[in-house]
Each structure stands twice: as structure tokens, then as C-alpha cells.
Design goal:
The complex is a heterodimer of chains A (about 475) and B (about 375). Chain A is of the alpha/beta class. Chain A is about 50% helix and about 15% strand. Chain A is built from 17 helices and twelve strands. In chain A, helix 1 (about 1-45) crosses helix 13 (about 360-375). Chain A is globular. Chain B has about 375 residues and is mainly α. The radius of gyration of chain B is 30 Å and the shape is elongated. Classes of the chains: A alpha/beta (about 475), B mainly alpha (about 375). The interface between A and B is large, with 57 and 60 residues.
Chain lengths: ~475, ~375
């Protein structure tokens, strides 16, 4: 009897993985169809049309900064030359204990001013507002520390324009990222409340003066694995979700939101470990309840580059934080799961998130023990086991290869070395690296010391990144 | 539990797909890159060839039929078309027509099943701007693909094909927003020829929905035709639709005619804050300093955005900066704040700093001034 149960659990675990990979392959094919159309349209003159049109809506870029002295000035400079007809930059100094504010004051000739500030969204106490005199349209909000979400809320309050682009201080923007993303707003201004962009790892690439000169795949395994992960997520999943108008997550590093909608839902939730996921889901829920026609879209041509963890220690902290954020979101939005009231979002994407993101580490962790045990006790047929594992592996590989193929239309990685590194990674990540991330996510589920705090990213500043790879 | 044959076959199939994907990826990387490089080299070569043909009537370098079939040749033609003016354009059109480039692109646009090829053809016809394509482009104003409708309108605008104006204007009400906006850009390119068709469209449609007429009004503003001022003032009097009133005020601001001043003054009393704010901005755009006193009163408006717009408008008027400095001592703290912000925006940061010193820039007084009205 026990043997029989062990056998069923063993087969069940592997079948679950095959189903998960099938879901991901389906999503990547859907994404491929969406991207193909986008690719054709992108080639023909949208950038020029958006730049020359006087109807392009103005945008406020909101950047929260906490102890970003090393990179904040380069980041703002790289943002100030983004090609877009009308934009302003709002930096929130979130009670930094280093010289972030001083660096900004010196670089942009800031002066403390008294101008109206509307606290539409709650945030920690504002200490002062600064305006630039250096030609860059920049406003700096100096406030007491309250975390990333709190800082974003303060920046949104100070934003003058109807669309806010929420990002981070450690990113490098592609010069046309706003044109591409705001094009989706102009396409359907009445319905579009949010646009997500394509976030790509920066590690290993050549950066000069805050600008990306050449994209490269990093040599170390940890960031290289993340390059592949990001490609799968941003090219082989999100376009498909967006196509169904059921995008559950607009990344915190690249999210453009209609300001009035953000104010309606109360902005970002301070203290939430997955504040971007929480915000996206709250906006969906709010607008679905209100029965308002809307859309939240993803634009793969709108690219930003960000530093990803370079060591296992930092990656562990990040993954634990992400999974805890997911856990809170799963708890908060549980009634939406497989609920037809929430349409494709509830039935397909949020359901898929729960089944294949939240539960996956638990099932895989159980599988690590049950499958070998059941096999040793003879409850699993050796041949069948090998075939099933091979199916799961081959489908995982397929998913990565489709993502790499989809990336080809963007042409960022051009050297044969980069391509072969990524292809190799698609196979290698299954042996050790993926298991490592599963273990961290289990730690997040179990909780305990070190899993409930944010931790530091140990940033080196965009300008110093490439040279140290 | 599962078929002994089925799973190995499935594994084989999936690995075969993996192998095909891998091969495709490697091929795409190597072949695509080589093709792109070769395409660019040929494009440069064709550009040189076309330059010689345009500059020298007796150029002996032949343009062969196979060259004319090459996509790089089409790109070079488009590059050249965007770089030349005057008589050189006629010479280029002779080359284009001699080699049947336009006919071929029209055929692709009409019959190809590939979206990429149809889009490319539409862009080529729009960029080359040849009158022989006008009828084809007119037909494709109704294409099922929005981007092709946009390119068709662009092409017609490029050759200033007058019969297309009415056709483009008449589609304003039914088009999707993105196409409508691009159509507006095309009509701006037509200049004053589009003014009366747009006005006629607004007159007929402004009672049946605001989206199309509002954009038509803003298009008129961008065209900058003074003859539109009187009809716009009539529309402003007739309509009760807020969005159309706002768009009309925007258009009047763009036209900058002093005739609109009285109508805008009266809109500062509107019950809609959006219209009050827009009218204040428009008065700033007209440049008439006699509006300063009325706008100073508007700086005490109950709505934040209206106050801010009035202050910004004053900053644009002759003598407005001095007036804003005086308003820093206004009894109404909201008006004083609006003046400080407008001065800061106008580069007069000293004033905002002084105000910070006077009132104290800590949190309490800052937040104490916030009202509850919404800002959008």
C-alpha cells in the first residue's frame, strides 16, 4: 500500500513538471505570435511618428533612491536624454544615510524650494523639495525613510504629468524605451492604464557614461542563469499574458501607470515585498469590480537594463524576497484564483501563477526525496522514470530555446560566444542551479531568520559594473 | 499507467523539436547577421549609384532589372527620397517609374498575404510619394490593418493629394485612437487645405460624440489658419460638451488670435474647473497683458490646477513675472503658492526659495496648504 502511494506520488511529481513545462511552452508559443506582429510594426517608423507628434502625452519618471550615492547621478543623466517629446524626472531620496542628496544637489544645481505638493498617496514625512537649474527638468523629494513603495508614492504625488514611469535608480534606459511604451498608451488612451517594459540584465555589458554601448552575456554562472531567466520571463511569458489582457505583473523596474488610476487604488503598498505584483493585481481587481474597460499591456521593444545579483548570497536574498512577495499576493488575491468573475486573469494567468510558480518549489522539493526513494523501493519503473524525466528536461530546453529565438528579433547579443553561452546555460541550469533556487523558495515558505527583511543589493553603480565582470 | 511506445515517441518528437530550434537559432544568428551586413553594403552602393544618376544626366552606370528587384535598392530609394529636394525628386521618380518600383509595391500591397511585405510596401509608397500610387493608397484607407491605413494616409499627405482630405476627415469618428491621431498628423501636413473640411466635419458631428471632433479641433489649432478663429468661436458658443469646449479653447490658444480674448475671459467663470484651467492657459498663449488682472483673480480659484494654470499663464505675459512677485505676498496662501511655483517654473528659483524662508519649508506648513480638490 505504502509502496503504491509512493509510486503514485513519484509519477505525479514528474507529471506535474511535464504539465508545467507544457503550460510554459504554450505560453511561449502565444508570446511568439504576439511578438511576431509587434516585430513587423516596430520596424516601420513608429519611433519617428511618436517623437514628431504633438499628441504624445507627457510623462513623469519617478525614481526612488536609497543610499544610491554611487550611481544616482549617472542614472538621472541617462534618463534625462531619453528620447521623448515631454518628460520630467522626479527623484525621491528615501532618507538615505549616504551622500545621495548631496550628489544630486551638486550635479544638477538643485535649490530647495517651496512649491505645492499634494499628498494624494500616503507616505513618510517630506523634509524638502528641490528643483534643478541645470537644464534637466528634475524635482527631488527629500523624505524620511519608508521603503521603496513609500518613496514611489511620494514621487507620484509630486509628479506633474498624467502618466508616471516608475523605475529604479540602478537601471540604464534604452533611449527609445519611452517612445515604444507610450506608443501603447497613444494606441488606446482611454483604456490603457498600465504599460510594462522589457527588463534585461546589465551584468557583463559595456557601459559608458550611463549608456549601454554593447550588450554581452556575463561569464559567471549566477548572472548568466538570470539572463536566460529574464529572456524566458520577458519574451516567452509576458507577451502572451499581455495579448490576453491578463498581465498579472508589471515589473517594478519598468512600469508606466496612469497617475489617476494609481491614486484611485492608493498607490504602492509600503512594506509589501512584492509591491509591483500587488499593485498590478489591485488595479486589475479594482477595474474589474468597477466594470471599466481597461487594459494593462506589455511592450517588449521598451527595454531597460538592470544589475542582477552577481553572487549566490545576494541572489538568495532576492529570491526569498520575491517568493515572500508572491506568498502575500497569493493570500491577498486568493478569491481571484480560478474565479470566472476575473476573466482570463483569474482563470488562466493567476491560476497558472498559483499552480506553477507558488506551488512548484513544494512539489519539486517533495520530488527530490520521493522519486529516488520510490525508485529504490521498486515502486517506479526505471525505464518509465527515465523517459518521463527526459520529457520534462526536453520541454524545459524547448522553452529556453524558444525564448532565445524570440530574442533574435531584438539583436542585442550578437557574438557567437554569447549565443553558445546561453544555449549551454539552457541545459546546465537544470543541474544544481535550479535546485538552488527551489531550496531558497522553500526557505521563504518556511520562513525563519533572514527571510523577512529586504537586505541590501550591494550595488556597485552602473558605471563600475562591466569592468568587474 | 502509460503506453510503453507513446512516451519514447514523445521524447523523440520533443528532442527533434529542440534540435530543430537549436539549428534554427544557430542558422538565424549566422545567416541573418551575414544577410544584414550584405544588405547594408548593397544599400550604400545603390545610394552612390542613385546619387550619380540624379547629379549627372549622362551617367553611364546602369541600373539593372535585378538591382531593381533587390530590397536594398528600395531602402536606398527611400533614403535618397528623404535626402533630396526640388527637381532632383522628379529625376528620382523617373528612375522609380522606369524600373516599375511603384507598380511592384502597389501589387504587394494589394495582393500579398504576408503582413510584413504589405507593411513594407505601404511604407515604401508613403515614403516615395509618387502620384501614380494615389488611387491605391486611397483604397487602403479602409485596409483591415491599422498601420497600413496610417501609411496610406501618410503617403497621400506626402503628395498633397487633395481628394484624400475629405476621406481622411470622414474617418475620424470611426477610427481607433492610434490611427485617428496619426491621421491628424497627416492633416496638419496638408496645412490650410484641411481647415474647412475639418470645420465642416466638426459642425456636423459635434453633437454626436466628442472624440473625433475634439481631435479635429486640436488639428485645426496645429494648422495655424487664422480663418478658423471665427468659426471656432461660434462652435464654442454652440456646444455644451465639455470635451469639445476644452478642445476649442486649446485650438484658439494655438491660433493665438486676440479675437478670442473675450470668449476666454468669460470661460474663466465656468463651473467646470478643467475649462477654467484651459481658458487661463489659453489667455497666457494669446500674449495680451491686459489679461493679467483677471488671471491674478483666477489664481485664487478653488481648484489647484486652475490656480496653477492661471499663474503659469501670467508668467508668459509681458510684465507677468513682476506681477507674480507681487502675488507672493497675496493674502490667499493658495495664490501665493501658485505664484511661487510659476516663478520656479519660469526659472525664477530665487522667489521660491524666498517663499520657503518666509513660510518655513518643513512638512507642517507644506501639507497644511493642501486642499481636497482633485488634480488630473
Amino acid at each position: 500500500m505504502i509502496l503504491e502511494i509512493l509510486g503514485w506520488v513519484g509519477y505525479g511529481t514528474i507529471t506535474y513538471f511535464i504539465l508545467m513545462q507544457a503550460y510554459l511552452v504554450f505560453l511561449s508559443l502565444l508570446s511568439g505570435a504576439a511578438l511576431r506582429r509587434n516585430h513587423h510594426l516596430r520596424r516601420f517608423g513608429r519611433v519617428g511618428e511618436m517623437l514628431s507628434s504633438r499628441t504624445s502625452p507627457p510623462v513623469s519618471i519617478v525614481i526612488p533612491a536609497y543610499n544610491e550615492e554611487m550611481g544616482i547621478v549617472d542614472a538621472v543623466r541617462s534618463m534625462s536624454i531619453v528620447r521623448y517629446p515631454r518628460l520630467e524626472i522626479v527623484v525621491t531620496n528615501d532618507g538615505s544615510t549616504d551622500g545621495t542628496l548631496d550628489a544630486l544637489i551638486a550635479a544638477f544645481n538643485l535649490e530647495k524650494v517651496r512649491i505645492p505638493y499634494r499628498p494624494d498617496l500616503e507616505c513618510a514625512r517630506i523634509r524638502g523639495i528641490y528643483r534643478g537649474r541645470s537644464g534637466v527638468d528634475i524635482t527631488v523629494i527629500d523624505k524620511e525613510n519608508g521603503g521603496r513603495a513609500d518613496a514611489l508614492n511620494a514621487g507620484i504625488n509630486a509628479a506633474r504629468y498624467p502618466y508616471v514611469f516608475c523605475t529604479d535608480a540602478d537601471v540604464v534606459l534604452d533611449p527609445d524605451c519611452l517612445v515604444h511604451s507610450m506608443h501603447r498608451v497613444v494606441e488606446d488612451r482611454d483604456r490603457t492604464v498600465g504599460v510594462g517594459g522589457n527588463v534585461r540584465p546589465l551584468n557583463g555589458s559595456r557601459i559608458e557614461l550611463g549608456h549601454l554601448i554593447e550588450a554581452r552575456v556575463p561569464r559567471p554562472l549566477i548572472p548568466r542563469m538570470q539572463v536566460l531567466e529574464y529572456l524566458r520571463t520577458f519574451l516567452a511569458s509576458r507577451p502572451g499574458w499581455s495579448w490576453m489582457n491578463a498581465l498579472p505583473l508589471v515589473s517594478g523596474a519598468f512600469g508606466i501607470w496612469k497617475k489617476s488610476t494609481l491614486v484611485e487604488v492608493g498607490g504602492f503598498a509600503p512594506g509589501h515585498m512584492g509591491e509591483d505584483l500587488d499593485l498590478t493585481m489591485r488595479i486589475h481587481r479594482h477595474l474589474l469590480h468597477a466594470n471599466v474597460p481597461y487594459r494593462i499591456v506589455y511592450e517588449p521593444s521598451a527595454v531597460i537594463w538592470t544589475e542582477v545579483p552577481n553572487t549566490a548570497r545576494v541572489l538568495r536574498r532576492q529570491r526569498i524576497r520575491w517568493h515572500r512577495g508572491l506568498m502575500t499576493a497569493v493570500r491577498d488575491f486568493l478569491p481571484m484564483t480560478f474565479n470566472p468573475r476575473y476573466k482570463q486573469l483569474g482563470m488562466l494567468t493567476w491560476g497558472g501563477f498559483l499552480l506553477f510558480e507558488y506551488i512548484a518549489p513544494i512539489i519539486e522539493f517533495i520530488g527530490w526525496f520521493v522519486v529516488p526513494l520510490a525508485w529504490m523501493l521498486g515502486a517506479l519503473d526505471t525505464t518509465a522514470l527515465i523517459w518521463m524525466v527526459l520529457v520534462a528536461f526536453a520541454m524545459g530546453l524547448m522553452n529556453s530555446l524558444i525564448a532565445l529565438l524570440l530574442d533574435e528579433s531584438y539583436g542585442f547579443f550578437n557574438s557567437p560566444t554569447d549565443t553558445s553561452r546561453l544555449i549551454l546555460m539552457a541545459a546546465v541550469e537544470n543541474f544544481g542551479l535550479r535546485q538552488m533556487t527551489v531550496l531558497w523558495r522553500i526557505q521563504a515558505l518556511v520562513g525563519g531568520q533572514g527571510t523577512r527583511s529586504w537586505g541590501n543589493m550591494e550595488r556597485r553603480g552602473v558605471a563600475n559594473l562591466a569592468s568587474q565582470e | 499507467m502509460f503506453s510503453d511506445q507513446l512516451v519514447p515517441v514523445a521524447v523523440l518528437v520533443i528532442f527533434s523539436i529542440d534540435a530543430a530550434l537549436l539549428t534554427g537559432l544557430v542558422l538565424l544568428k549566422s545567416v541573418h547577421r551575414r544577410r544584414m551586413r550584405s544588405h547594408n553594403v548593397r544599400r550604400q552602393g545603390y545610394l552612390g549609384l542613385l546619387s550619380r544618376h540624379i547629379s549627372f544626366d549622362d551617367s553611364v552606370d546602369p541600373i539593372t532589372a535585378s538591382m531593381a528587384e533587390d530590397p536594398a535598392f528600395l531602402d536606398a530609394l527611400i533614403d535618397m527620397r528623404n535626402a533630396i529636394t526640388g527637381d532632383e525628386i522628379s529625376t528620382l521618380h523617373r528612375i522609380v517609374n522606369h524600373h516599375g518600383v511603384i507598380e511592384k509595391q502597389m501589387r504587394y500591397l494589394d495582393t500579398s498575404l504576408l503582413l510584413s511585405r504589405r507593411l513594407r510596401a505601404a511604407v515604401a509608397l508613403a515614403e516615395l510619394g509618387d502620384e501614380t500610387a494615389a488611387e491605391t493608397l486611397m483604397r487602403h484607407l479602409d485596409d483591415r490593418e491599422p498601420e497600413i491605413r496610417i501609411q496610406a494616409a501618410r503617403g497621400l499627405g506626402r503628395i498633397q493629394w487633395t481628394p484624400a482630405i475629405d476621406q481622411i476627415v470622414s474617418r475620424f469618428s470611426d477610427e481607433i485612437p492610434w490611427v485617428r491621431v496619426r491621421f491628424s498628423d497627416t492633416l496638419i501636413g496638408y496645412g490650410i487645405k484641411a481647415t474647412w473640411p475639418l470645420l465642416a466635419y466638426i459642425r456636423i458631428n459635434h453633437r454626436f460624440g466628442s472624440k473625433g471632433p475634439a481631435l479635429a479641433l486640436r488639428t485645426i489649432g496645429q494648422i495655424q489658419d487664422d480663418q478658423a478663429v471665427a468659426p471656432l468661436l461660434e462652435i464654442l458658443e454652440e456646444t455644451s460638451d465639455l470635451e469639445i469646449q476644452i478642445a476649442t479653447v486649446d485650438a484658439l490658444a494655438e491660433l493665438g488670435s486676440p479675437e478670442a480674448s473675450a470668449a476666454l475671459h468669460s470661460r474663466l467663470e465656468s463651473k467646470h474647473w478643467e475649462l477654467r484651467a484651459k481658458s487661463a492657459s489659453a489667455l497666457g498663449a494669446l500674449g495680451d497683458p491686459s489679461a493679467i488682472s483677471r488671471l491674478t483673480t483666477a489664481m485664487r480659484d478653488e481648484n489647484w490646477w486652475a490656480r496653477r494654470s492661471a499663474a503659469a499663464a501670467i508668467a508668459r505675459l509681458p510684465g507677468g513675472i513682476a506681477s507674480l512677485y507681487r502675488s507672493l505676498d497675496d493674502d490667499d496662501p493658495f495664490a501665493a503658492d501658485a505664484a511661487a511655483e510659476a516663478l520656479a517654473d519660469a526659472g525664477e528659483l530665487v522667489s521660491a526659495r524666498e517663499r520657503a524662508k518666509t513660510i518655513g519649508a518643513d512638512n507642517e506648513p507644506l501639507l497644511a496648504h493642501m486642499g481636497s480638490e482633485s488634480r488630473s
